């Protein structure tokens, strides 16, 4: 019960009750309106941290079942529909990928990859930033929790490197020596890799699911192909931009490769389980990339990878049972997807998009497109969770954009890409943010200032140069 914040929970309940008893507008069914009340109050509770995301989600599922909004007068069907998303393949894709990610941590392969890149690139502070970022890039396709990837693998190594060069968390006078720069660079590289791969962060498959509800098919490969050029440019540009706007006092880190080599020596030669983990990683990548050709679904690929790791004993069933992050994600993911999907099928999202369309009638889609994307991007200031943001706004913004003529696949992908990079704005904007900010290396004002400046860089690279790339691909 320690996780419950009762004042915030009371505000959440009051908010939901008020919406529930407001008469639904013309064109909206009572069932859709009441589901909206439960959905919005759940999102508010998550934003206010009234309880954990899992607790809020279980409350929501219970209220949906009790209220019968999905099947009035049929309690049996109501609970079945409330639990329907637990069988959704997209939800299990992200859950199973968490289990696979455990293999990188358990075997030590994730750390080994990071140290290898540091040994190659770490002679300068800029090179060190690129080395840590490239390690994140290699891990991202099969480690869907960017919090586990950034906070569990990259962050400890980054902090260790900074401290070895005299940049100590407990000494503010040394923060700008190296730690501050590496903190912001590593965090932002994590966001870029989150946007590059469909399996890069947990909210991406949610976007895929919502787009599918509107008849837009996004595959692992189509997402990657569209993100490739703007993400590659971001990987190149962001550490350098931060090097200019938030420069480290220490420019040369010539000892870093030797430190990394020493860590690799301590780890010893690559052992059998690391080789098996690497083989599983290659199998996953190949099948995700070529799955469309052979008719193998992305979730089936994830299952193949997990079974391989279990049979090879890289993981055991205790590892799967103890992976709390995966089971937590499956629960809240299911609840939010269920409510957002039924808001669409019950007619609320189509009604809302038609309402907005009437307000912006006559606007050319080339004008509407950047407006929708920018509003969606910068509204992240009010969200402490990318998942909550996607659940609350993705479907509605996608529907509105399609209604004014924006190519559906284009908008679905761009809004999806925002789900990673908009985390740059604040110190609470994405899962890894509290971990990196908690290092104390970067002051709040500097985090927000650099975040805003980098948001402009991202918009130029993704909306500007990216738009040209998407034209080449035939997306618009």
TrEMBL record:
<comment type="similarity">
    <text>Belongs to the SLC13A/DASS transporter (TC 2.A.47) family. DIT1 subfamily.</text>
</comment>
<feature type="transmembrane region" description="Helical">
    <location>
        <begin position="9"/>
        <end position="26"/>
    </location>
</feature>
<keyword id="KW-0812">Transmembrane</keyword>
<dbReference type="Pfam" id="PF00939">
    <property type="entry name" value="Na_sulph_symp"/>
</dbReference>
<keyword id="KW-1133">Transmembrane helix</keyword>
<feature type="transmembrane region" description="Helical">
    <location>
        <begin position="329"/>
        <end position="353"/>
    </location>
</feature>
<feature type="transmembrane region" description="Helical">
    <location>
        <begin position="365"/>
        <end position="384"/>
    </location>
</feature>
<feature type="transmembrane region" description="Helical">
    <location>
        <begin position="220"/>
        <end position="243"/>
    </location>
</feature>
<feature type="transmembrane region" description="Helical">
    <location>
        <begin position="178"/>
        <end position="200"/>
    </location>
</feature>
<feature type="transmembrane region" description="Helical">
    <location>
        <begin position="79"/>
        <end position="101"/>
    </location>
</feature>
<dbReference type="InterPro" id="IPR001898">
    <property type="entry name" value="SLC13A/DASS"/>
</dbReference>
<feature type="transmembrane region" description="Helical">
    <location>
        <begin position="451"/>
        <end position="470"/>
    </location>
</feature>
<dbReference type="InterPro" id="IPR030676">
    <property type="entry name" value="CitT-rel"/>
</dbReference>
<keyword id="KW-0472">Membrane</keyword>
<feature type="transmembrane region" description="Helical">
    <location>
        <begin position="300"/>
        <end position="317"/>
    </location>
</feature>
<feature type="transmembrane region" description="Helical">
    <location>
        <begin position="275"/>
        <end position="294"/>
    </location>
</feature>
<feature type="transmembrane region" description="Helical">
    <location>
        <begin position="113"/>
        <end position="132"/>
    </location>
</feature>
<feature type="transmembrane region" description="Helical">
    <location>
        <begin position="32"/>
        <end position="48"/>
    </location>
</feature>
<protein>
    <submittedName>
        <fullName>Anion permease</fullName>
    </submittedName>
</protein>
<feature type="transmembrane region" description="Helical">
    <location>
        <begin position="396"/>
        <end position="422"/>
    </location>
</feature>
């Amino acid at each position: 019960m320690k996780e419950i914040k009762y004042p915030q929970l009371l505000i959440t309940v009051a908010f939901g009750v008020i919406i529930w008893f407001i008469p639904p507008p013309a064109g909206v069914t009572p069932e859709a309106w009441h589901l909206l009340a439960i959905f919005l109050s759940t999102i508010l509770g998550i934003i206010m941290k009234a309880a954990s995301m899992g607790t809020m989600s279980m409350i929501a599922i219970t209220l949906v079942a009790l209220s019968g909004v999905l099947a009035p007068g049929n309690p049996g069907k109501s609970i079945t529909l409330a639990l329907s998303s637990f069988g959704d393949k997209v939800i299990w894709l992200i859950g199973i990928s968490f289990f696979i990610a455990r293999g990188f941590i358990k075997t030590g392969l994730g750390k080994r990859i990071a140290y290898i890149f540091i040994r190659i690139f770490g002679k300068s502070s800029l090179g060190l930033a690129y080395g840590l970022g490239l390690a994140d890039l290699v891990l991202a396709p099969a480690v869907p929790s960017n919090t586990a990837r950034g906070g569990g693998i990259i962050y400890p190594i980054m902090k260790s490197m900074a401290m070895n060069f005299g940049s100590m968390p407990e000494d503010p006078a040394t923060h700008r020596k190296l730690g501050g720069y590496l903190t912001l660079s590593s965090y932002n590289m994590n966001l870029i890799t989150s946007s590059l791969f469909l399996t890069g962060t947990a909210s991406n498959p949610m976007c895929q699911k919502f787009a599918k509800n509107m008849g837009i098919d996004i595959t692992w490969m189509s997402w990657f192909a569209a993100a490739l050029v703007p993400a590659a440019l971001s990987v190149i540009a962001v550490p350098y931009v931060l090097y200019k706007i938030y420069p480290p006092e220490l420019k040369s880190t010539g000892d870093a490769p030797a430190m990394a080599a020493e860590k690799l020596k301590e780890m010893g030669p690559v052992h059998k389980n690391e080789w098996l983990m690497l083989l599983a990683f290659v199998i996953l990548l190949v099948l995700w990339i070529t799955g469309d050709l052979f008719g193998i679904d992305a979730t089936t690929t994830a299952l193949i990878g997990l079974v391989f790791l279990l049979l090879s004993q890289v993981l055991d069933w205790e590892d799967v049972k103890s992976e709390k992050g995966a089971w937590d994600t499956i629960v809240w993911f299911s609840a939010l997807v269920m409510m957002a999907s039924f808001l669409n099928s019950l007619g609320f999202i189509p009604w809302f998009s038609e309402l907005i369309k009437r307000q912006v009638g006559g606007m050319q889609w080339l004008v509407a497109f950047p407006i929708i994307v920018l509003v969606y991007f910068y509204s992240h200031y009010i969200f402490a969770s990318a998942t909550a943001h996607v659940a609350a706004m993705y479907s509605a913004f996608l529907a509105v954009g399609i209604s004014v003529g924006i190519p559906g696949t284009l908008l679905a992908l761009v809004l999806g890409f925002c789900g990673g990079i908009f985390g740059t704005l604040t110190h609470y904007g994405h899962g890894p943010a509290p971990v990196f900010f908690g290092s104390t290396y970067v002051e709040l004002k500097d985090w927000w200032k650099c975040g805003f400046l980098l948001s402009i860089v991202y918009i130029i690279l993704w909306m500007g140069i990216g738009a040209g790339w998407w034209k080449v691909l035939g997306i618009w």
